[in-house]
Amino acid sequence: AGNQTSLKNFFKPK
Amino acid sequence: MFEARLVNSATFKKILDAIKDLLDQASFDCSESGIQLQAMDNSHVSLVSLNLKSDGFDKYRCDRSLTMGMNLASLSKVFRCSGSDDTVTIKAQDDADTVTFMFESKKQEKISDYEMKLMNLDQEHLGIPETEFSCIIKMPSAEFARIVRDLSQFGESIVISCTKEGVKFSTQGDIGTGNVKLAQTNNFDKEEESVIIDMQEPVSLTFACQYLNLFTKATPLSNQVTLSMCDNVPLVVEYQIPDLGHLCYYLAPKIEE
User: Fold this and answer.
1) Residue A5 confidence (pLDDT) above 70
2) How far apart are CA B211 and CA B72, in angstroms?
3) Cα gap B167→B101, rounded to integer Å
4) Chain A partners of B253 at a C-beta cutoff of 8 Å?
5) Which of B159, B160, B220, B162 is nearest to B196 (CA)?
6) pLDDT tens per residue, range B8-43
7) Which run of H or E residues covers position B87?
8) Which residues contact B231 (CB under 8 A, 6 or more apart)?
9) Residue ranges in chain B whose pLDDT is less than 70
10) What is the DSSP letter of B175?
11) CA distance B73 to chain A (A)
């Protein structure tokens, strides 16, 4: 159920 | 020169067990303030963030900040050689390409050391924005592990819904559905057994069982786990490591197809 999102959508490289 | 001594090497072993199935390799960033590790799994769905403060160690010295890239399967092999009551001392020279682990038994009648090659890892540190979470749930870590394990039998995802009455874990799969509801407890005497919910707004998010199960490998580290949730933001699963620091996992949510 549902599509897995990527963490990179939420956290950006420093 | 870097040197860190931990009387209870079993704690480090537990930390390793809690991250080695998520990460193949990781960099340990050592500085005066302690040891930190931040790494995403290969699929970029979850992130591990470990923070061990220097004063939690029995001895700690770090003259110059250093980053030690390690293969975690190799590190596990090293720690498999330690006894449960052993003390561990981790040592590295500045700019070294190896790290040494020395294990000492309680009565010091057995001392072993293992030198391991370090790796140069391309590490990318991610900025984790400050979040005002809608719901923060504190619950027994063993209960969380049990619920995740039970529900994983039925489906690939778990929906975690939190209201001020309690928290509900739900799953559905080919054979049917499963729901576990936990009410907030009033048993304030035994904090370790309590379910405490701090809710600003109700929230419901869907997460992959596979990752939640891997996070629960940290259960031996702490009696309690904290789940922090906010709409459209990764879940934070936090285990406090008594007197030493914390281990946090971040998990990107699943969204409607």
Assistant:
1) yes
2) 18
3) 43
4) 2, 5
5) B162
6) 999 999 999 999 999 999 999 999 999 999 999 999
7) strand B87-92
8) B134, B203, B205
9) 187-188, 257
10) T
11) 24
What does the pLDDT read at residue B197?
94
Q: Are B102 and B112 in contact (CB under 8 A)?
A: yes
Distance CA B98, CA B96 (A): 5
What Rg value do the Cα atoms of chain B yield, rounded? 20
Residues B148, B243 contacting (CB under 8 angstroms): no
* Amino acid symbol at B226: T
CB B3 within 8 A of CB B91: yes
Is the pLDDT at A1 greater than 70? The verdict is no
This model of the complex carries an ipTM of: 0.96
Q: Write out residues 1-14 of A within 8 Å (CB-CB) of B.
A: 1-14
Best interface-test mutation with A: which of B49, B161, B205, B255 has the largest number of A CBs within 10 A?
Answer: B255
